[in-house]
Design goal:
The protein is of the alpha+beta class and 330 residues long. Helix content is 40%, strand content 16%.
Length: 330
């Protein structure tokens, strides 16, 4: 359980926290007695989550003074453009936003024309920016988000466009750049080239490895992975052979790096397959390696459950739950 933090005396927008009112086991469930700077109303109970996320910044005095914005009645409050508009305010004005130090902490603000305290703020924002382009990636994520052309200026009509997320990532102030063999790229681009994650590069650096060491090791592994091998007149890349042999690429790479020929590697894994456990299910007989490939699990996953007396139906059910794979054996 997280410890309740004392926030008495802190300010959240126009709220000033007076005292804790509702005893709870964590900040998420706690309520605090707050008073608004406007002085129009007495102390009110506000949930800690609403304070932290900037969902509650005043007693409603701002909205009463300017009237209800038109967008609340136009069905736009559930659109991606509205969420974008809310998000840029959160980054600029909520100190509890994890990215506040890169926006509001650097003096980045939202212009009055688009500001949430302006009754026409969202309407003006939508008219200036237009709908976000609908182009999406293969995994369904949008390729566009709001971009500031000049990072030293705030969110204003002349400085904002719908930009490609990949391009924006290269313009971030907190990007980490590396140079290898005379070529300079951001860490994410190097990770993509090496076939690993940016987090893995960061962890190597934290352990004292140099970027040259990382680049040399993973460049060599990538070259081996793309190496073409020929066996019995059939030529394929290493990763394609690994798929046919129903083993991981790292298993093939292990023996290649040990100096074994590919003929030896192929025969070695074929011998393992021939001695594999044969399982018949719904009048179909396959080795446990082949069933593992179809179910999207490791061969030892099947071996483990068979040794423990589990039925193959049980194994299929567990595989479905573990991998959430579609189109498995029915």
């Amino acid at each position: 359980m997280s410890k309740i933090i004392n926030i008495v005396g802190q300010k959240f927008g126009m709220w000033t926290v007076l005292e804790k009112s509702y005893q709870a086991h964590s900040n998420k469930n706690s309520y605090w007695l707050c008073v608004c700077d406007c002085g129009e109303s007495g102390p009110e109970l506000v949930c800690w989550v609403d304070l932290r996320r900037g969902r509650s910044t005043n007693c409603g005095c701002v909205r009463r003074s300017i009237g209800k914005p038109d967008y609340l009645f136009s069905g736009m409050s559930t659109t991606v453009e509205y969420r974008t508009w809310i998000g840029m305010h959160d980054r600029c004005y909520s100190q509890n936003n994890p990215n506040y130090h890169r926006y509001g902490g650097r003096g980045i603000t939202v212009c009055w024309k688009w500001h949430r305290d302006n009754s026409d703020g969202f309407k003006n924002f939508y008219e200036d920016m237009g709908p976000r382009p609908e182009l999406k990636s293969k995994n369904g994520h949008s390729l566009f988000s709001i971009e500031r052309k000049d990072n030293s200026f705030g969110y204003e009509p002349f400085n904002c466009v719908w930009g490609l997320a990949e391009v924006q990532a290269k313009n971030r102030d907190d990007n980490v750049w590396h140079t290898y063999s005379g070529e300079t790229k951001i860490q994410e681009d190097w990770a993509r080239q090496f076939g690993i994650t940016s987090i893995k590069i960061r962890r190597y650096l934290e352990r004292g490895k140099t970027f040259d060491w990382i680049a040399e090791n993973y460049s060599n592994l990538r070259k081996i992975s793309d190496t073409v091998f020929t066996y019995n007149g059939v030529t394929m890349r290493q990763k394609e052979w690994a798929k046919e042999l129903v083993v991981s690429q790292s298993a093939v790479l292990f023996w290649i790096k040990k100096g074994k020929s590919f003929d030896w590697v192929y025969k070695h894994f074929m011998e393992i397959k021939e001695n594999a456990i044969k399982i018949t299910y719904l009048e179909t007989t396959r080795t446990h390696y082949e069933w593992a490939a179809e179910l999207g699990v490791r061969p030892d996953f099947i071996q483990y459950h068979l040794k423990n007396g589990k039925s193959f139906e049980y194994i299929i059910d567990r595989a479905r739950k573990n991998t959430q794979t579609e189109g498995l054996v029915k």
